[in-house]
Design goal:
alpha+beta, six-stranded mixed β-sheet
């Protein structure tokens, strides 16, 4: 990641996610990254902190057992030092094919052009309703 700014790395992470390029996504993450989702998603195996590349891979492999699909659309990037906050929307599809647009905030902590933490912040009640629809 050397030579890549924090902002460029985060944008690359979203591109890799959109392209379902797991290795490309992992290249933007520190090997010991904390991949954090609301504890309220524990019911579906999606809550809490996943550690390192192995934890992120495990999380990403589990998502299709709970959701039919997801597309992220980052809308606004705010950068301050080693922190980048992204406001956006995601199109989330349940296993039954019902799709909703949900807002998110992602808080990225960066070091040397790689994410050491990514926290996904969203309304878990709306997410539960979608999963159960």
């Amino acid at each position: 990641m050397s030579g890549r700014s924090n902002s460029e790395a985060v944008r690359a992470a979203y591109r890799a996610f959109a392209e379902r390029d797991v290795e490309g996504l992992l290249a933007t993450l520190h090997p010991d990254v904390d991949w954090v989702h609301p504890d309220g998603m524990d019911t579906y195996g999606l809550g809490g902190t996943k550690k390192g590349h192995a934890g992120v891979k495990e999380f990403l492999a589990h998502v299709p057992t709970v959701l039919g699909g997801m597309r992220l659309e980052p809308l606004e990037f705010i950068e301050s030092g080693d922190r980048i906050v992204v406001f956006g929307i995601r199109q989330v599809t349940s296993l039954t094919g019902h799709t909703e647009t949900l807002q998110f905030v992602h808080s990225w902590t960066m070091r040397d052009g790689r994410a050491t933490a990514m926290e996904d912040i969203f309304d878990t009640v709306l997410f539960h309703r979608l999963i159960e629809s």
